[in-house]
């Protein structure tokens, strides 16, 4: 337990930031969060100390980081838009604040950094040769973090595949493409090819893994990277089957993702363009090698898949009872 330690969480209303904040709070950390809408944040994380500010404003981040021993940089540009203009400046503000306070930076990593030259099993030591613009930006972000570590700022990166969980956000394939929030599951959309594996990280497990690593901060080097395996199937469509069973709709069809429409419209719709860049990650198996993580922690936190999916679908109002209740509530409210 760390009752007197403070963690600043940037992106605390997002999926990863929310779960990391919760896992740290359960260990006695004081959680501080920065948001342009602190009133909204307080409804999600009432135990956090919410400050009004913007991660794009260096002074706001610096003020929020005073006396913090950890800065969780889990903030991302909304809707995959304008990564070049937003992601790098926000990270620079975090690095500057960490240098001033001596805090360690925790950064959620993605598989965007890698290209087919190191598929199908990604190790922490593999070279990063991205195929996409977002991937190149993510590589540059990690390079800046490594440079900061060389100047004395401690950094922890925990990399995972696609996220799902009870507090998923719009920047998630699960909630954007596979199922629709607020409705019972009548079909599941699957972006991948048959027989191709895919990595999924359950957000509460991921947040718990990060917190356990932070518990052992003194045993880690100044720049440390771990890979989180999560849930993996050799045939990724088994994940779609598991969704159907968890939703109580085992006969719901699994439909192919309309890549041809998305690719055709990508020159005109920025969101489609950003999603189309990620198609290569669905065409081939991509798994994360978590042996370093399990060697260090002894195990990787792992919620059984059915329980994880049931909780996720319940919170998304995708189970028949929750969706019906929400619909009746909305009708009464009209």
UniProtKB/TrEMBL annotation:
One of its GO terms (cellular component) is cytoplasm. Transmembrane segments: none annotated. Residues 7-221 form the NAD-dependent epimerase/dehydratase domain. GO terms for molecular function: aldehyde dehydrogenase (NAD+) activity. SUPFAM superfamilies: NAD(P)-binding Rossmann-fold domains. InterPro entries: Epimerase_deHydtase (IPR001509), NAD(P)-bd_dom_sf (IPR036291), NAD(P)-dependent_oxidoreduct (IPR051783). PANTHER family: NAD(P)-BINDING DOMAIN-CONTAINING PROTEIN-RELATED, PROTEIN YEEZ. This is NAD-dependent epimerase/dehydratase.
């Amino acid at each position: 337990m760390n009752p007197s330690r403070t963690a600043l969480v940037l992106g605390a209303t997002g999926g990863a930031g929310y779960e990391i904040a919760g896992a740290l709070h359960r260990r006695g950390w004081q959680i501080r969060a920065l948001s342009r809408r602190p009133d909204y944040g307080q409804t999600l994380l009432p135990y956090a100390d919410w400050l009004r500010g913007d991660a794009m404003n260096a002074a706001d981040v610096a003020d929020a980081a005073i006396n913090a021993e950890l800065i969780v940089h889990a903030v991302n540009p909304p809707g995959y838009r304008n990564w070049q203009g937003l992601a790098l400046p926000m990270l620079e503000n975090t690095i500057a604040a960490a240098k001033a306070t001596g805090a360690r930076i925790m950064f959620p990593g993605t598989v965007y950094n890698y290209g087919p030259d190191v598929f199908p099993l990604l190790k922490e030591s593999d070279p990063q040769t991205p195929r996409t613009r977002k991937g190149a930006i993510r590589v540059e972000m990690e390079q800046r973090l490594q440079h900061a570590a060389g100047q004395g700022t401690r950094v922890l990166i925990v990399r995972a595949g696609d996220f799902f969980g009870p507090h998923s956000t719009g920047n998630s394939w699960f909630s954007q493409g596979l199922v629709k929030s607020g409705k019972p599951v009548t079909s599941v959309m699957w972006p991948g090819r048959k027989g191709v594996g895919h990595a999924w990280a359950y957000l509460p497990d991921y947040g718990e893994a990060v917190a356990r690593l932070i518990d052992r901060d003194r045993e880690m080097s100044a720049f440390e990277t771990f890979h989180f395996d999560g849930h993996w199937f050799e045939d990724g469509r088994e994940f779609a089957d598991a969704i159907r069973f968890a939703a109580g709709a085992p006969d719901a069809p699994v439909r192919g993702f309309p890549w041809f429409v998305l690719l055709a419209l990508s020159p005109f719709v920025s969101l489609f363009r950003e999603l189309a860049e990620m198609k290569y990650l669905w065409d081939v198996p991509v798994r994360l090698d978590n042996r370093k993580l399990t060697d260090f922690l002894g195990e990787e936190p792992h919620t059984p898949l059915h329980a994880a999916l049931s909780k996720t679908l319940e919170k998304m109002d995708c189970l028949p009872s929750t969706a019906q209740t929400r619909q009746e509530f909305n009708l009464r409210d009209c």
